[in-house]
Design a protein that fits this description.
heterotrimer; A mainly alpha (about 375); B alpha/beta (about 250); C mainly alpha (about 290); A: about 375 residues; mainly alpha; ABC transporter involved in vitamin B12 uptake, BtuC; 2 strands; C: about 290 residues; two-stranded antiparallel ribbon; 11 helices
């Protein structure tokens, strides 16, 4: 347990604080092929003053990262600002996926569909009713939550694999569905919309304003996820992941919590989709093909399942791996992602974030010994 | 505290030397040594949690071990269960391990899976007859799925399947568990017959010490992963104190 | 009525293909308890191998057995090399590895053969047989025949050979299988090899209908999942029956439900999966609901 203490300060500061989920962060398991983070939670006694120290360091790191994040758009060219905005958008979706896969141990191959639901909800509200954009966010999140609940209900009653099947089916079905309702969705051509403009008093450029909107949503999402995980419900979810049978014996209502976990994670994806529409100003069915869902899962796995930093790292991956490797070959991103996923599941089931944490602890231990 | 006043390594068929075993971080056996002569029945007794089942698992390669296990001179320690089985060790595990969805005959045929070469088909047919000879009830059920058998029949099937391996060493884990006394007695009778007729060496783990000592020549009492007492079955049966403290009944 | 029957027959033809891939899924599920999300992509890759052989001038009926052999060995290798390290790991881990394999194989095929569609010759003659008012194309008949042959071969393998008995033993109880001396690892590899082979058959049947391209099997995989869910994930017979039902349901829905048309047909497997989960989670032929 005391190993935990080396982790905070030594972690790369870029990564550490963003998705800090507090004390419920699970340790990477030592079994090389084990489920990520099944280790027990730290007991109160083991934390002690060192824990407090870590918490303080973490707090400092969070503030530092936030400062960098706020300062960055004033230094970067608009295209880079746009790229980092997209990283934040993906990170929000991945925070949701991380709740489901990393913490509740269920798998979704269709989070792109909920992302699309959020994006289209927002687009249609703009397009049809000229709704002010801040109002589209709760609407998109709520609709995704409800749909997640509805589809989760039959799927999670049984074996985890059925959720994967149902979500995959939804992801595949959604594209033709969006194309069909042309009068509402714009069909294959999609909808083009005005992006939210920066209020005059801010003096910000449009790309900077969008970046800050995305950053604000990301911060709220991080805080929300952190509170969810700290709540009773979060504990129940982890109990379900670690040992379903035992959790049931202890009186955890399995189906309820699994459905809830799924609905929440869908909600985050919906919110991310909403911000996506703000940022891109355009939606079309083919942007939300099943590839998006699978890429999201891939990003999260590579970033780190169940790890607080996983979603942000995953967002960086989802954004930059395709754009960097696409120059080599059209298929290169897939090859890279596919191999990375397999490799990550072998050597570091907690992904890059877990690897960094492990390295930090090893270094810390070595230093202490000398 | 293991006793080493046993026959010398040379003449023991099964020789276990300083065997440690466990699961993950939990260590269960702490240096068990014992010897079993060829054609002997050896009973392993002891309270719950003493490590009896683990000992059998260690012998058949089902858990990680340190130490040596020699069967007729070949070292078995560290080999996988299937490799150990192919060297003639048949393990009837706790819970019997029958292939539930398969028929009785398929279960028995699987017992002879490792056999190959010319004449295998005929020898398997012969062995099926032999097993049906020991357990006539299995013949009447041969087309039924194993899952539909009663507990006693399943235990017979499990032992029958083990015999199909033509074992040099037969490991039985709690054959009496969950069975009616009459069935248990019949089962032990058959085990003794098999031992007598085929000269199969048997190691049997049993809660019902009285029954086990009735068929065994040698017995070892295991407690918290160590052998605390070894000797001939008669001697152990006669020892009042042992009976009370380890076997849980008065003679 | 004649037209209805006509649609049913066409549905059966499509269903035969779904049944083939579903069979592959069920094979792996029964032996390893793993749902292989990469099954469709492996089938697609096999089809490309067949295409490559034929592009080299080989006749179809020579390329096919070669492709099946390569697929079989490839499937075994994948089990040994990629799945083995996560054997016994939590299901989530294994599923994610198969998803990784899905992405990798899909991209690798695109890398090697590009994402442009390719023509793939049908192994069956172009015409159709006439039976009363019904017109049944030879390719439909061929698909059904091939699946029947595969089914029959698997039945013989599992029910009447020693190796098949060993595989069933492993599927029933891997621990006991070890205790009777079966090399369980090799049996699992064999299961993957067989599944890859059966999948390759379905890929070769699909390709003439859909054109060959790396994403060819994505939709088919979904239908196969629906078939396996409907038939029961642990039942090969269920996979085939489920596949045929899904094929017929899809064709009829496309033809008679105006709203669905041809573009929304892909909603049919989703509906079937949801309905099966709600009404009969173990599937029509499955032994028990798949539970943790």
């Amino acid at each position: 347990m005391s190993e935990r203490s080396e982790r905070g300060p030594a972690r790369p500061s870029l990564v550490a604080p963003v998705a800090d989920e507090g004390d419920h962060v699970s340790e990477p398991s030592d079994g090389r092929a084990g489920l990520p983070g099944q280790a027990a939670e730290a007991s109160a006694g083991a934390r002690g003053w060192r824990g407090a120290l870590v918490a303080r360091w973490r707090g400092i790191a969070v503030v530092a990262l936030l400062a960098v994040a706020i300062y960055a758009p004033f230094e970067l060219v608009p295209f880079r600002v746009f790229q980092f905005t997209m990283v934040l958008v993906y990170a929000v979706a991945l925070i949701g996926l991380n709740l489901l896969v990393g913490h509740a141990g269920q798998i979704s191959l269709g989070h792109g569909a909920f992302f699309a639901v959020g994006a289209y909800t927002t687009a249609i509200m703009f397009d049809r009713w000229d709704v002010p954009y801040p109002l589209t966010l709760p609407a998109a999140a709520a609709l995704a939550f409800v749909l997640g609940w509805a589809f989760g209900l039959p799927a999670v009653r049984l074996h985890g694999l059925y959720l994967a099947l149902v979500t995959l089916a939804i992801a595949i079905f959604l594209v033709p569905l969006l194309k069909r309702f042309e009068s509402v969705t714009g069909g294959s051509m999609g909808l083009t919309l005005a992006k939210p403009a920066p209020p005059a008093w801010t003096g910000l450029a449009p790309d900077q304003w969008l970046y800050f909107l995305a950053l604000a949503v990301t911060v709220v999402a991080v805080l929300l996820a952190r509170n969810l995980l700290r709540s009773r419900v979060g504990r129940a979810m982890r109990a379900v992941r670690d040992n379903e049978a035992a959790a049931e014996v202890m009186g955890v209502r399995l189906a309820f919590y699994k459905t809830l976990a799924f609905a929440w994670s869908a909600m985050f994806a919906g919110a991310a989709g909403c911000v996506y529409t703000w940022v891109i100003g355009f939606v079309s069915p083919d942007s939300f093909a099943v590839t998006l869902s699978i890429t999201l899962l891939a990003g999260l796995v590579v970033g780190g399942l169940g790890s607080p930093a996983g979603p942000l790292l995953g967002g960086l991956f989802v954004m930059f791996v395709p754009s960097l490797s696409q120059d080599v070959n059209e298929a290169a991103p897939g090859v890279v992602f596919g191999l990375l996923i397999i490799a990550v599941m072998y050597v570091a089931p907690t992904g890059l974030a877990g690897l960094a944490g492990r390295a930090a602890r090893t270094i810390g231990r070595t230093l202490r010994r000398e | 505290m293991s006793e080493r006043s046993e026959p010398a390594a040379g003449d023991a068929f099964l020789a276990v030397e300083d065997l440690h075993a466990g699961y993950g971080d939990a260590r269960v056996l702490h240096g068990v040594s014992l010897r079993v002569g060829q054609g002997e029945i050896c009973a392993i007794l002891g309270p719950n949690g003493a490590g009896k089942t683990t000992l059998l698992r260690a012998l058949s390669g089902m858990c990680r071990v340190r130490g040596s296990v020699r069967l007729d001179g070949t070292d078995l320690a560290g080999r996988s269960p299937d490799a150990v089985a192919r060297r003639g060790v048949a393990h009837v595990p706790e819970g019997r391990g029958t292939f539930m969805p398969l028929t009785v005959e398929e279960n028995l045929r699987l017992g002879a899976f490792a056999r190959r070469g010319r004449g295998a088909r005929q020898s398997v047919a012969d062995d099926l007859d032999r097993v049906y000879g020991y357990f006539p009830v299995l013949r009447t059920r041969m087309r039924q799925v194993a899952g539909s058998l009663s507990g006693g029949e399943q235990q017979m099937l499990a032992i029958g399947r083990a015999l199909m391996l033509r074992p040099r060493l037969l490991l039985l884990d709690e054959p009496s568990l969950g069975l009616a006394p009459l069935v248990t007695r019949e089962l032990f009778g058959i085990v003794r017959t098999i031992n007598a007729e085929e000269g199969t060496t048997v190691v049997v783990v049993e809660q019902n010490a009285h029954l086990a000592l009735g068929v065994a020549q040698q017995a070892h009492v295991l407690e918290t992963g160590r052998i605390v007492l070894s000797g001939s079955a008669e001697r152990i049966q006669a020892d009042e104190q042992v009976a009370q403290s380890y076997l849980g009944y008065r003679v | 009525m004649a037209e209805f029957l006509q649609q049913v027959v066409e549905g059966l033809g499509a269903g035969a293909i779904y049944a083939g891939l579903a069979l592959a899924l069920v094979l792996i599920y029964r032996f390893t308890g793993v749902v292989n999300f990469a099954q469709g992509e492996l089938a697609m890759f096999s089809t490309y191998i067949a295409w490559q052989f034929m592009a080299g001038g080989m006749a179809f009926w020579l390329a096919l057995p070669l492709t099946l052999a390569v697929s079989f060995v490839g499937g075994m290798l994948i089990e040994r090399v990629i799945i083995r390290p996560v054997e016994g790991a939590p299901e989530l881990t294994v599923v994610i590895v198969t998803v990784g394999l899905f992405i990798f194989v899909n991209a690798a095929a695109g890398w090697i053969w590009s994402f442009l569609i390719k023509d793939f010759p049908s192994p069956f003659p172009a015409g159709s047989a006439q039976a009363g008012a019904l017109t049944v194309s030879y390719s439909t008949l061929g698909n059904l025949a091939v699946v029947a042959v595969v089914m029959g071969a698997l039945y013989l393998l599992f029910q009447h050979t020693k190796i098949g008995l060993g595989m069933r033993g492993v599927a029933a109880d891997p621990r006991s299988a070890r205790l009777v001396g079966i090399r369980v690892g090799w049996m699992l590899a064999l299961g993957w090899g067989l599944a890859a082979l059966v999948g390759a058959v379905s890929g070769v049947l699909v390709a003439p209908l859909l054109f060959l391209e790396p994403n060819m099997m994505g939709g088919v995989l979904l239908y196969a999942f629906a078939a396996a869910t409907l038939g029961g994930f642990d039942s090969p017979v269920g996979a085939v029956v489920g596949g045929l039902i899904v094929g017929v349901a899809e064709t009829l829905a496309g033809a008679y439900v105006g709203f669905i048309g041809s573009d929304l047909k892909v909603g049919v497997p989703l509906a079937i999966i949801l309905a099966a989960l709600l009404l009969r989670p173990q599937g029509l032929f499955g032994r028990a609901a798949v539970r943790q």
